[in-house]
Amino acid sequence: MYCSAADERVYCTDCHRATEVVLDHGTGDTICTDCGMVLDEHYIDEGQEWRVFGDDSAGGEDRDPCRVGSAGDPFLRGDGLLSTCIVHSAKSKSRSRSGSDPAAALHLPRMMLDVGGPAPDTALVDAFRGIADMADRLGLVATIRDSAKQTFKRLEEAKGCPRGARSRDAVYAACLYVACRKEGMPRTYKELASVTAQGAAARKDIGKMTTHIKKLLGEEDGQVLDIGVVRATSYLRRFCSILGLGNQQMLAAQEAVSRLEMELDVRRNPESIAAAIIYMVVQRAGARRSVKDVSAATGVAEGTIKEAHKDLVPHTELLFAERPPRGSSARPAPAAGH
């Protein structure tokens, strides 16, 4: 593997001048780019070692940037997976009595080794992996993933985590739902259900588990579970981006939602309002987007969008009326002679 060192010039005894060189990290040679002469051998690379020895027998190039082991998890005791335990087993005891155990013959004491601290709970490790996998498939940022892990750990410590494979995904999804709300980037139950093994059928279980988490952890140890208030504006930008709307249409939708929240009282879910407003913006712009397209992008059912749209149509003028530009005066011009 060669690395260019064009910013450095080294004097070449063959070219009799300072030339550009390259570094061969495989052999540690410094090579002149003009004549190919090796100017220096056994160059020491003080950078990180990314070499992998798994494909040496196949003759492949060692370019895979893998390291040994995984990064530590601050939510696990003893860095999670660094613990090593050596204990007696019933089979080894029977072998030691019969004299067939080499360790017994050598009189080697058996002991328990704990390299990384106390061994973590297997359920906690599996849960963190499941939460991380769901977060990756939903495209959630690391702060949401870590917040969901913290919520699950608090739930586990409060003995409020139900057992069973069926409810496991619902618990992970509910922790992610709470974390998204806390970070101000909410996701709908339908979006979270899409990454569970049950699919859309898990929506009801996720909702029940979310209610359970809020009830159990809401006032635990004086720490209020602040998940904020979800509004239509919380979903709007993401829905518009998924649908591929332009910046002008997105601003019109945001303005309409802002007016609706300030001046109207529409008793519908925030995601339904956001989807209906987007559908109205699309219709006014003449874009080739059907209610089916809006439903696919927002995850709101087509019938729900049509019902919310029917409620908002009488207020179209209020929602989309053009406001006078800032700084302009609405007062009439003075009459002549004054």
Automatic annotation (TrEMBL):
GO biological process, one term: DNA-templated transcription initiation
UniProt cross-references to PROSITE patterns, sorted A to Z: ZF_TFIIB
InterPro entries the UniProt entry points to: Cyclin-like_dom (IPR013763), Cyclin-like_sf (IPR036915), TFIIB (IPR000812), TFIIB_cyclin (IPR013150), Znf_TFIIB (IPR013137)
Family: Belongs to the TFIIB family.
GO cellular component, one term: transcription preinitiation complex
Source lineage: Eukaryota, Viridiplantae, Streptophyta, Embryophyta, Tracheophyta
UniProt keywords, alphabetically: Metal-binding, Transcription, Transcription regulation, Zinc, Zinc-finger
Gene name tied to this protein: LOC100825589
Name used for this protein in its record: TFIIB-type domain-containing protein
A Pfam family recorded for this sequence: Zn_Ribbon_TF
Domain TFIIB-type residue range list: 8-40
Tree of life domain: Eukaryota
